[in-house]
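Sample intake — Putative multiple sugar transport system substrate-binding protein
Collected from: Litchfieldia salsa
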Amino acid sequence: MKKVWKSLSLFLVVTLLAGMLAACNSGEQVGDSGASDSGVSVGIVLPTKDEPRWVQDEQRFKDALADSDYTTEILFSQGSSAKEKENVETLISKGIKVLIIAPHDGAAAGAAVEAAKQEGITVIAYDRLITETDAVDYYVTFDSIAVGMAQAQYLVDNAQGTNVPLYLYAGAASDNNAFLFFEGAWSVLQPKIADGTFVIANSSEAVTLQDKAELSRDEMGKILGQVTTNWDPSEAINKAQTHLTAVSEDMKGSVAILAPNDGTARSIADTFVSDNVITDFTITGQDAEKASIQYIIDGKQSMTVFKDVRTLVKDAMGMAIDILDGNTPETTGSYNNGKTDVKAKQTDVIVVEQENVKMELIDSEYYEASEFTGL
């Protein structure tokens, strides 16, 4: 009888354990299946982690979906179009419905977004336009021409006398925005070059074209070929050093410098300040990076164009959520990318200098006062 009870007890224990294991295994399979089915709602590809601007964007994108049922994954291309395409393919495989992409190279990104479009994914170009393809649905951007105009107007407003040496610098020729920034700047600077306020110091192509109020893209490309920084502070230093070595002393003294963004502005400013024939300079910037705000407070950079990325991220994510919800996103204009007119939503820009740093960046809670000295 004892043997029977022992056998029965052993049978019950084994049966119970088997049932528990089966339940556990079944639960794991459901969990895995559920994760796979849910996928990623919004895929985001940013150009590099090496610039503070894009790292800040990463966190803001995450925050923008924090209270939503939708999910996102953010990948960085690290300045490589091949990596960018690989990132897009990775996100496609995860089932994204919307792709937000700030391309490293606007033309090269065409192949990547065409692959997304073939899968029925809505493509939003973020901050930088993707060119020469009809596989772009929307474009969320700051008014890039207005950025260049604001930079140039600052140089005009602060020019003293006539024949002020003007040093021109630009972003990467692979970035459509670099052309738009320069187009806006040229529209303001050219009349002041024509009337003798400024004298171009560092571009023979710009000198050749200085009587033209409007430049074709090819003409701008020739100038950019001489003054591009490729958005690289190190390259900006090399360019500035080369230009200062090449010019005569009458192209120094008190000068004006069109620098395309904050990273290059700091590098160029540091290079110019080390030349003892440069007495003072007015230099532009863009992006309101922390390091440049400190430079502005310290009088080492003159201004920056503040593009409130919080608004741009909000616009991009708002557009993505509209699409996911089955609604038509709001747009305010369009940009021709060489293949089609891309519907766009534009965000305004603000000039920041010493006098309004606190109001525009601290009072608006973009930065905290404790992050700076001498404020």
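Post-analysis note: The longest strand covers residues 341-347.
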